[in-house]
Input
Amino acid sequence: MILSSGSDHVYSGAIYEYQNSFLNYLHLEDMGIFTACDKHNQSPEKLEELYQFGKRLVPDAPAVPAPMPVPDFLAAFDSGGPVRQGSAVMAASGWYSQEALRITAELNGAYHTPEEIQDLFAQLTGKPVDRTFGLFPPFYTDCGKNITLGKHVFITSGCRFQDQGGITIGDGALIGHNAVLATLDYGMDPSERHDLFPAPIHIGENVWLGANVTVLGGVTIGDNAVIAAGAVVTKNIPPNTVAAGVPARVVRTL
Output
């Protein structure tokens, strides 16, 4: 922390607050106090030197480690049981959500080549992404670590994946604009309202989800199925069928 003051009284007060309030409250390590301008040092060059020193500290700042390894985190969500408020798994979910927000902010905030998008998506999921994968940002998720993709998958812009419960997308699937895949429910009982109840989504090979489709947790969509734009899929859809409506129902076979 760098302090600069034109008054010894203000300067002393600032040091006191720094040591007794700021550090203690945030549980930070004291890296020392540097003065850029005092009675004996009126150098602007010193201020610039200290500013550059502070910038160099940023990349080396220790990252807060994940409270739970990814395999343990996924095992808890894939177990079929609820994730309780206040549990270690819930805390880990919050940590991975923050990581996902950071990666998706980078993904969505600037132009990236297809290869760069694939690399960022690999960071997001924590697993290799096939070079046939395509994505038009923006893309949103509050986890990312429970997404599994096949080959030749294409995701169009504006999609939102809530993947803690697990989202698997088969080879050749096409995910239309603004699709929502949601694998979490809250408890219906008020005493469980802040607990999470995960259930996986399985999307088969060559499935086509139209624009603004919503798929809820626990649903399997069979190979080659087509889900019409705006449908809300609450139950399994057989292979080689077309489903439409709210809730979605099969309207024809292929």
